[in-house]
Every structure is written in structure tokens, then in C-alpha cells.
Specification:
28 strands, 2 domains, globular, five-stranded antiparallel β-sheet, seven-stranded antiparallel β-sheet, 27% strand
Length: 473
């Protein structure tokens, strides 16, 4: 077993050595023999989510206007849930209007008291990277920018993305996400809301009689490109997440901390690398990627249960049918089915699962090969995106994701016996707290200082490579 794991580690190390080269010049890295200026970069295969290349891919950086991807994601979620519609008309507030006339930012003018649809706001946010329009989206959905940003951060956490945001448009230098985080966010956005590509691929949009061109300079210049989002601030440098589809394969490439003249050439190199090497890297990855059988104990509503789970990169993954079997008599019950024609997994909450055999089978002692699946999953008719792996033909979900979807609590108890505790009760018994003397109120509590918005890139005068000067997105 130890020898097998050492061999696996060696293979992975070889892949990393082949895909992430040492810098060949100050401030430059080599990608497939070509130099790029990205301070952080990541390339992933859309279908599998496998990372094809990474340079400082897990390092948190300032995303600038790529922040708007998460804002639009939250809006599309709300449209799908019926909270708002693309044709909903919202009235522009004084704060949004004042912000929209600040030409330090990428903006379109929004007159106070004027009305505009959610669809129009998304258009100018995605195509022209209009900052005030992003704030207007937040006010329309949540009533305030602050509440909207809180919802964005909650969404990022639910997607398992390590990130923090202080605004919805990308001005704050305290907004942080890694290149891999941007790629993962973009993948989930396209998976769950593919209509975003119809907007992101527009060459221009017209607002109040004025034409605003797309800040993505690769549109029409790179085969198959149809998105996704640019970004620039002084703190972030020039950023871009680009996606293209060629020959049935979609690649997502992220560059962060590039320069004005290299951002799009860097992305071109990253995308080409992805298309050229995806097949071989994915094959090697699938041959070497192993999941370890978990020896943890599982306590469900106070009862010890048989555990069928694997550890994949430190996280517990459960077979979907096993979880449905375990929860079949609880408030968190759900049923699962397979749509053969649509090649999709169907989940129905509130319904009890009928065992079909093979649930809760014991695991072997050896590591098993795990393969990221491209199967689509629908919960109560709504498609959702999460990390799913196939192990011996079965779909394994991360425990945290399942708890979030089906309404149970999952807690890891750090003891010598290694125990995972699941609780499905909708109401919890009150626990009598010991009486303690309450300290008096302390004077002079410090309030957190407010965030000063940073400068956001604004498409303006053209520079090298058709790039825009000033603070553009």
C-alpha cells in the first residue's frame, strides 16, 4: 500500500513538473514553452473540473471586477428561485446614481429615479463591467449593497470556494480569491446558468442610445471563445477569466496580475495549452488519482451506523444512495433516480428512498481510483453543481454538500475514535446552561473601519493590443 501511494505521489509530482515550469525570466512563467506574465494562473477542464495547469493557483489575490461574476451568479440563482425575474423593473437610487457618474470607475450613467430591468443591468455588468449597475442589482434583490455582499459570501462558502468579498463590483483591495477559485466559480456559474455565456459573448450592448463594447478583446479573435470576465485595479493588476469551446471540449483559463499589454496574449497561451494537453493530462490524472477508504465512525441521530465513505484530498465523500438509505426515515429523507435518456441524476426531497441493493457495502482495504464525473444532477427539478467523483461506477458526494442540500448537520468530533456526527432533527432540545455572572458592558468598543472603494478599471481610450486605458474592468 505504501509503495503504491509513493508511486502515485511520484506520478502527480511528474505532472506538476511538466505543467508548472520554473520562471524563465523575472516576473514570467513558462506555459508549454511560451512565456506569460501572470502572477497567478489556472487552467481547468470544464467537464471534469480537473486542473490542467497552475501557477500560484491557490494563492488568494485581488480579483477586481471578476468579483461581478459572483454578483451575477446570486442574481441568476434568485431568478431561478422566483425571487426576481429578468424583466423585473427596479428604480435607481440616489447612491447608485451618484456612483454611476463617477468616471474613476467603469460605469454607465444611471439617472436617479429612472427605471431599468434586471436583464439590462446584467448586460452592462457583464459586457461593459458597469460597477454602479452591479450595486443596483444588489439593491433590487436584497435592498442594500451590504445585504447583497453578505449573500455573495454565503454563496461562495456554499460552493466550497475560499474567498471573501467586501463589495459586489470589485473595487475593494480586500476582496480576495485565488485563480483556482475564480476558475471554479466560473465553472459552477456556467454549469448552473449557461445563459451567462449568451450575455458574455455579446460584442456590445446599447444603453440609453449609447453603445458599449465588450471589454473582452479575445471575442472574435480566438476560436470558440464566448466569455467570460475582465478585471483591473491598481491592487489587482490586469485580470481575466476566459472560456472557449473547441471540438466539444470547454476550457476555462484564469490570469491574475498580468499587465495591460499581456493580459489577453497570456490568456490565449493558457487556453491553447489547455486544448493541446487536456486529453493527456486528464488521462494521467484519472490513472493516478486515488481515494482512501475512511475508517471514521458515523453517528446518525445518536445511533452508530455503518460507514461507506472515502477520503479524497482530506474530505469525506459518501455514496449518494447510501446517504438516501441512511436518511430514509428522517426529516431529511430524499429519493434518487437515474434519467437514462438525459444521462442525469435526479433527486427528490421529502420522499423516502427505496433500496435497490448494494447500499452500505463494506469497503476494501485498498485505495480506489476516483474520477471526476461530468454527470448532471437535478434536485427537485433544479440543476446544481457540486464536486462529484465516480468510484467503481458509484457517485460520491462531499458530506458538507449533502448536509447543505438535505438539511442535516454534520460535525466532525476530534477524538481518538475519529467520529462524524450527523443530526437530522428539525427541532433541538433546549440545553440548560449553567448560571454564570454576566460581565458588564464594556465601554469604548471599537467599530470596524469602513471599506474605502478601490479604483476599478474603466474601458476608455484604446492602448496597446486594443486594450483600454485608465481604470477599466
Amino acid at each position: 500500500m505504501k509503495r503504491l501511494r509513493k508511486q502515485t505521489a511520484f506520478v502527480i509530482a511528474v505532472i506538476i513538473a511538466l505543467t508548472v515550469s520554473m520562471p524563465i525570466a523575472a516576473g514570467a512563467i513558462s506555459v508549454g514553452g511560451q512565456e506569460v506574465s501572470s502572477q497567478g494562473a489556472c487552467i481547468i477542464d470544464f467537464d471534469t473540473g480537473i486542473v490542467l495547469f497552475g501557477h500560484e493557483a491557490d494563492v488568494l489575490r485581488v480579483p477586481a471586477s471578476m468579483t461581478k461574476l459572483l454578483a451575477v451568479y446570486v442574481i441568476y440563482d434568485a431568478v431561478r428561485e422566483g425571487e426576481i425575474s429578468l424583466d423585473t423593473v427596479t428604480t435607481i437610487s440616489k447612491d447608485v446614481s451618484d456612483f454611476s457618474y463617477s468616471w474613476e470607475y467603469s460605469n454607465v450613467p444611471l439617472q436617479q429615479g429612472s427605471t431599468i430591468t434586471i436583464r439590462e443591468l446584467i448586460d452592462v455588468v457583464m459586457v461593459w463591467s458597469a460597477c454602479a449597475a452591479s450595486v443596483a442589482l444588489g439593491e433590487a434583490l436584497c435592498g442594500s449593497e451590504e445585504a447583497f455582499v453578505a449573500r455573495m459570501n454565503e454563496k461562495a462558502a456554499r460552493l466550497g470556494i475560499d474567498a471573501v468579498f467586501h463589495d459586489s463590483y470589485g473595487g475593494s483591495q480586500d476582496n480576495k480569491i485565488s485563480p483556482y477559485g475564480v476558475a471554479k466559480l466560473s465553472r459552477y456559474l456556467i454549469l448552473n446558468h449557461p445563459q451567462v455565456l449568451d450575455v458574455a459573448s455579446k460584442r456590445s450592448v446599447t444603453h440609453r442610445g449609447a453603445v458599449y463594447e465588450n471589454s473582452n478583446r479575445l471575442l472574435g479573435e480566438f476560436t470558440g471563445i464566448d466569455g467570460l470576465k475582465t478585471g483591473y485595479t491598481d491592487a489587482a493588476g490586469y485580470c481575466f477569466v476566459g472560456t472557449a469551446q473547441q471540438g466539444g471540449r470547454r476550457i476555462i483559463a484564469v490570469t491574475m496580475g498580468s499587465t495591460q499589454t499581456t493580459r489577453f496574449p497570456d490568456t490565449r497561451i493558457l487556453l491553447n495549452y489547455g486544448f493541446n494537453y487536456a486529453a493527456s493530462i486528464i488521462s494521467e490524472y484519472q490513472n493516478s488519482n486515488l481515494a482512501m477508504p475512511s475508517n471514521a465512525n458515523l453517528i446518525l441521530d445518536g445511533k452508530e451506523m455503518p460507514l461507506t465513505a472515502y477520503l479524497i484530498r482530506g474530505s469525506h465523500y459518501f455514496k449518494l444512495r447510501d446517504v438516501a438509505f441512511l436518511l430514509r426515515d428522517t426529516d431529511s429523507r430524499f429519493d434518487v433516480a437515474w434519467d437514462q435518456a438525459g444521462q442525469a441524476g435526479l433527486i427528490f426531497t421529502g420522499m423516502s428512498y427505496t433500496p435497490v441493493g448494494g447500499e452500505l457495502t463494506s469497503l476494501g482495504d485498498d485505495d480506489m481510483k476516483c474520477i471526476p464525473t461530468s454527470i448532471r444532477f437535478f434536485c427537485d427539478g433544479v440543476e446544481f453543481a457540486t464536486e462529484v467523483y465516480q468510484i467503481e461506477g458509484n457517485n460520491y458526494f462531499m458530506l458538507r454538500d449533502l448536509a447543505d442540500m438535505f438539511g442535516f448537520d454534520a460535525e466532525w468530533i476530534v477524538t481518538e475514535t475519529r467520529t462524524i456526527v450527523l443530526n437530522t432533527h428539525t427541532e433541538y432540545p433546549e440545553v440548560e446552561e449553567p448560571e454564570v455572572e454576566e460581565p458588564g458592558d464594556e465601554d469604548g468598543e471599537d467599530e470596524e473601519p469602513g471599506e474605502e472603494p478601490g479604483e476599478v478599471e474603466e474601458p476608455g481610450e484604446e492602448g496597446a493590443e486594443g486594450e483600454t486605458m485608465g481604470q477599466a474592468a
